[in-house]
Structures are given as C-alpha cells and as structure tokens.
Write a structure and sequence with these properties.
By secondary structure, the chain is an alpha+beta fold. Helices cover about 20% and strands about 20% of the residues. The protein is built from 6 helices and 10 strands. Strand 6 and strand 7 form a beta hairpin. It binds a DNA duplex through helix 5.
Length: about 290
DNA sequence: AGTTGCACCTGGCTGC
DNA sequence: TGCAGCCAGGTGCAAC
C-alpha cells in the first residue's frame, strides 16, 4: 500500500497522538508479521515515553526515552487507527479484528491499533545509537523531499546506469520512498518514458540534462501534492482517523490503461517491467 | 554488478 | 452461488 505520501500521512496522525505520551499497555497478538517480533516486544515498550515520530523512506521511527527506537513498516496493507481505549486490549480471535495484530494503549487514554491483512509489515526495536547503521537503514537512498534532492543529485545517482528509469526510481538504495504509483505519475508529468535508460538523463560531463532537472522537480511536486491530499486510498490506506486519502483522484496514468491521456489524447498503456505494472502514455512520454 | 523472478500473505475482483 | 485465476501500494533473496 504505502509509499512515501501514505507513510507520511500516517506519521502525522500518529505524531499528534503519540508524542509525549507513555506506552501504558502493549498487546502483540501473534508471534510474527513479515518477520518475528523482537524478543519481549511488549515488555521492552511498556512504560516508555514517545519523544518523536520520524519517517525515513517508508519506515516510521518512534524515538523512545529509553535507549531504543521502535521501527514500523506498513508493508503492502498495514494501517494504524487511533481510537479511545475502552477496557483492556482484546486478545486474538475477537470478532471484527482478525487482522489487528498490535495495539498500544497510551497514557492519554488513546489506543493505537495496527492492522495488516497481508502481514508484509513488521516492527523492530533497535538501540538508538546503532539505528542509522542498522542493515535496514545503512543502504537507504536520498529523501526525495529533502533539500539535497535536485537534478544534479539525480544525475549523480543515475550516471552510467543502463537500467530503466522506472527501475531506477523504484530502487530504494538510490531514492527512498517512491513506489509504483508515484513513479508512474512522476514520469508522466515529466514526459519521460519509463523504458528510457536512467543514464540518459545525464550529460557526458556528468551534469544533469534539462530532463533530469524536470524529473526531480515533478517528483517533489507529485509527492507534496499527494501528502497534502492525505495519500492515495486504493484499498487499504486510511488516515489514522479512518478517513480516506484522495490523491487517487489525481492519477493521470496509474490504473488508467486504455483511457485517453489528459495531456495528448493518446491511449494510456500498461506494460510489465520487472514483474510490476507500469502505466504510461506512449504519445507524450519519450 | 545488474537484473529478473519468486516468495512472503490475504482479499477483492473477473470470468466461467 | 461457487470457484479458479489473477492482481495488488513492498522488499529481500536466490538465481542467472
């Protein structure tokens, strides 16, 4: 489900509820999600105060006042909802909560519930000093909404690459946080074919072409617009208050195969790249 | 080294 | 109505 805008939307919702609060009760209702939970997961969390909630790539990172950080990844179908705690956290097998896997009761009386039908998400506890060098993070690429992301950076990252633009933009070790939707949308806005070689955006002397500069600009724009819209809700993504994001209404190519391109009137096509669907307009994306 | 394919899961949709 | 088949926003690893 969640690419950068969806994770950022969730982060903002959780931040408002969690930062400054203590974890009064934690329930973990199964031994694993994508990976096993850390040893003594609940025990290590109870009593901790949440000092900050950050996002890096598609990861949520809760800074705790102890020595650890809580890492949370939503996988494909994870979501958080915030409700008022009424009574103890239900155990497993309770009706209507089959995929509620973790719940945190806060000192404020709020309850944060993690739901994830496909269980591709995971949670991890990492000592705070080691967190940046942890295998999950040490190889993660640049933040596309960060100050240093521009055409020159894109050129540096893509120089010499013969792989497709689509694959290069999805590569989390280069740029962190883009997924299938926003790559398709950004390439359409930039008028660039997803099949073009990534290195073709770089001049011989290593400086960015006008295309690289434009692509960096539209990536930033599409992500900012999506964050402002609360992300894209196709099926699973919800804001923490249960509301839907609405950026899906702004898609220009994603999921629109056989429809006319709004820019040039050409037909939007769907192809497969590296086993994943790519949507683009063959008329105006070159 | 760089790519591709597959695996991990469940649920929703399509078509027979 | 049922069921098989296919597809899905992510990522890590094995295999070419």
């Amino acid at each position: 489900m969640p690419e950068l805008p969806e994770v950022e939307t969730v982060r903002r919702g959780l931040e408002a509820a969690m930062v400054g609060a203590r974890l009064a009760a934690v329930k973990q209702r199964r031994p694993d999600l994508r990976f096993p939970f850390p040893e003594r997961f609940a025990e290590r969390l109870i009593g901790q105060r949440v000092e900050a909630l950050r996002r890096r790539a598609k990861y949520l990172i809760a800074d705790l006042d102890g020595a650890e950080v809580l890492i949370m990844h939503l996988g494909m179908s994870g979501s958080f909802r915030i409700e008022q705690a009424r009574g103890p956290i239900p155990g497993a097998g309770v009706k209507n909560s089959l995929h509620d896997h973790v719940a945190f009761d806060l000192s404020t009386g709020a309850r944060i519930v993690y739901n994830d039908p496909r269980r591709f998400g995971f949670m991890q506890l990492i000592p705070r000093p080691e967190f940046a060098g942890h295998p999950l993070f040490h190889n993660i690429g640049i933040e596309p909404l960060g100050d240093e992301f521009d055409g020159a950076t894109l050129a540096r990252l893509f120089a010499g690459k013969t792989t497709s633009l689509k694959a290069a933009l999805l590569d989390q070790t280069l740029i962190a946080g883009l997924g299938n939707i926003y790559v398709c949308e950004a390439l359409h806005r930039a008028g660039l074919s997803p099949r073009r070689a990534a290195g073709s955006l770089v001049r011989k002397d290593g400086t960015p072409s006008a295309r690289a500069t434009r692509l960096a600009r539209v990536i930033r724009a599409v992500l900012n617009e999506a964050v402002a819209a609360g992300g894209s809700s196709l099926r699973d993504h919800r804001k923490t208050d249960g509301a839907l994001g609405y950026f899906q209404h702004s898609f220009r190519v994603y999921g629109r195969d056989l429809e006319p391109c709004a820019r040039c009137g050409g037909a939007v096509r769907r192809i497969a790249q590296a086993g994943r669907a790519t949507f683009y307009c063959g008329g105006c994306q070159r």
